[in-house]
Amino acid sequence: MKRKLSLLAIAIFVALLPIMVLRDYTPSNELRYLSIADEAIEQGNIFAFTNQGAAYADKPPVYFWYVMLGKVLFGEHLMWFLSLLSIVPALVILWVMSRWTAPWLDERTRISGALMTMCSGLFLGLAVVLRMDMLMCMFITLALYAFWQEYSSEGNSSKPLWLFPLYTFLALFTKGPVGVLVPILSALLFCAIKRRWQTMGRIFGWRFWLVLLSGCGVWFGAVYIDGGADYLNNLLFHQTIDRAVDAFHHKEPWYYYLISVWYSVAPFSLLAVGVVLLHWACRKPMSDIEQLFSVIIASTFVMLSVFSSKLAVYLAPTFPFIIFLALLFMQGERVKRWHRIAVTLPAAIFALAPVAALVAPHVAELPIRLSVTLWAAIILLGAGGLGTILLVWRRESLHAATDALSATLLAAAFVGGMALPQLNPEMGYGALCREAMRMAESHEAEEFFTWNIRRPENMDVYLGRDIVQVSTAEILSGRCNGSVVMLSKRHLASETELREALDSLPATDTGGYRTIYIPTTSE
């Protein structure tokens, strides 16, 4: 089994390698994290961070330390190095879940479960984007596995008693309160349901509080020294209690996750979520491991729904448990007709991908041209979808079909990833900033301005200096003379006066943006 899991991990890594190497940073979060790390290195901060000079207490320091390490080691930010902190934790989660469920699921089923988990839409996305969520999910999974080891061993070893609080603290130290709440709430509720009060006492005994409180004490003390009382108050209260009670970001209704779970676990949501909900509704008897997985999913779901701030990625710690709980429920049962339909529907969507790609340009203007590489990825999706449908209805087991659907996604990701150099100008600011630097060097310009570009402040990662956002009136008044200006072509199309004023100037288009050097009046 170890050999097969290792081969699977290598195959997944290779499939995602083009995305990890060729992709540009997204402006919304990734570029901001790099800018925060650059400021921390420049200012010598370790525990208190700033973004464009303003305090940034949203996230604990672990992820930023890794980003800073990469910059110190290589002298620049490298996508492949930063991506390792997403893909490696994802593979660790697959290994833990496979090992955890080995007593109940056969090898074939666990391999399928690992593939289904990896290729669940949002889990796959988190495995390649630069976020701390996957690292937190890994520590939560390890913490819950340590809890299970203590529960099932009935106190025969003290090792899980140290590992459970250690992994719980690391989950907190990686992302924040959700990292500590998920394992604690799950363990408490499960022990209460099973009436294992002695186990609860051992798990939450002196070792737990020693590790958790000492870790938090050192962290918060260092934050106070590095950032002062205001930063510590921001970290402990504004970013936790305020977000939970009345969010200033990502505020959503209580039923948000009832909707998001279906696209988050796609293309396996109809099967996995459907199996779990039906089993719960029928109140069928459950083993201890099935009860624990159920408690983890339900308690996390309810807790996150109560919080005011909501994002689909917050539910990510439950995704592996949803998939593997569904497989536990299905183990030994006959495959039902609706199971096959639940796999057929997403496979049919894949099969229709080439048709959709042919029709789309006639319905709306596409932001990119479908290159040969993209067409190859789309055709792979279509062929994989058709193959999956055939396997669904010709095989006794669903494993071959779910494996085919997963392999289709990974193959399409590998081939489609090759097209990222073409797509990067539309996704990020790397190509735009390189053109702006080239233009600035040729004209000996020192300042960079942006007009109607979303979140441009973190372009300093590329340009090495602050970016100034200007209005139409400022450009027309001569504020930007002798400088390079980066503009949104979409917004420029509706600004007649500005467009006419800039039409005679040399310009370069990069994706949806235009770079212009505005000469001084003496030039």
Task: Give the structure's gist in a few sentences.
The chain is mostly helical. The protein is 67% helix and 5% strand. The chain has helices at 2-22, 30-43, 62-74, 79-100, 107-118, 121-126, 133-153, 159-174, 177-194, 197-203, 206-238, 241-245, 256-264, 269-282, 288-306, 319-330, 337-351, 353-363, 372-394, 399-417, 420-427, 430-443, 460-463, 472-476, 489-492, 496-502, and strands spanning 49-51, 54-56, 448-451, 468-469, 483-488, 507-510, 513-518.
Fold blueprint:
Blueprint: H1 2-22, H2 30-43, E1 49-51, E2 54-56, H3 62-74, H4 79-100, H5 107-118, H6 121-126, H7 133-153, H8 159-174, H9 177-194, H10 197-203, H11 206-238, H12 241-245, H13 256-264, H14 269-282, H15 288-306, H16 319-330, H17 337-351, H18 353-363, H19 372-394, H20 399-417, H21 420-427, H22 430-443, E3 448-451, H23 460-463, E4 468-469, H24 472-476, E5 483-488, H25 489-492, H26 496-502, E6 507-510, E7 513-518
